[in-house]
Amino acid sequence: MILQRYARMAGILLVLSLIGGGLGEFYIPGKMIVSGDAAATAHNVIASNSLFRLGFATYMIEGLCDIALSLVFYVLLRPVNKNLSLMAAFFGLVSTAVFAVFELFYFLPTHILGGAAYLKTFSPEQLNTLSLLSLKIYAIGGTLFMAFYGTAMLIRGYLIYRSAYLPKSLGILLALAGAGFVAKNFAMVLAPHFPSDYFLMFMPIAALSLLFWFLVKGVDESKMPAT
């Protein structure tokens, strides 16, 4: 029953992570950032400062859940291969840490536009531009290191596929999603004008499939290998 509890925990953490990520990475930044318009973006950040800060707070929820998921997936998949499961946990932690660094650039405009006395040497237009530049660095950095997160997904997908106590279809979907993340990462670097978002088409399918399976079915402990 221990793995069953970890499976339920994974489902709950995935729900929280998806909600936090959806709000903190997509919905709220999409409301704040006006591409190519520094003045409008600055106005949004100042006028809706509480909402802007909520975007960071919801990301924090996602980050905390992702760290916990690194442990939960390690426990769930170590009966298949302990070393590979540990490697996936390392990649997952590194990806979360890297993204956390770039989240600082998301939060930085609250200080740039905060009206502090030491910023009076900059004109309002310069402060607006610095804020938009900071947000663009956040957006680029948030996707520039997808290979770490994608590699963790690839390994976990392989381990799920090899396990007897989780469906092979889940492993295939997760591996395809992970491969898409890695492909998008390198496409951004080597072919920046290529429409690489198509590589991410398997991600929502894989995430929702894992979420519902862990919450509803969990693991079949009768098919676990003897330890």
List the helices and strands and how they pair.
Elements: H1 2-32, H2 38-47, H3 49-77, H4 82-107, H5 109-112, H6 124-144, H7 146-162, H8 168-190, H9 202-216
Helix pairs in contact: 1-3, 1-9, 2-6, 3-4, 4-6, 4-7, 7-8, 8-9
Task: Write structural notes for this entry.
- The longest helix is centred in the N-terminal third of the chain and has 31 residues, at 2-32.
- The protein has helices at 2-32, 38-47, 49-77, 82-107, 109-112, 124-144, 146-162, 168-190, 202-216.
- The protein is mainly alpha-helical and 227 residues long.
- The chain has one domain (2-223).
Strand content: under 5%
The overall number of domains is: 1
Radius of gyration: 20 Å
Helix content: over 70%
**Poorly predicted runs:** none
The ordered string of helix (H) and strand (E) elements is HHHHHHHHH
Q: How many beta-strand segments?
A: 0
Q: Mean pLDDT, rounded to whole units?
A: 94
Say what oligomer this is. single chain
Number of helices: 9
* Global outline: elongated
Structural class: mainly alpha
Task: State the end-to-end distance.
Answer: 15 Å
Largest sheet: none
Outline of the structure:
With 227 residues, this protein is mostly helical.
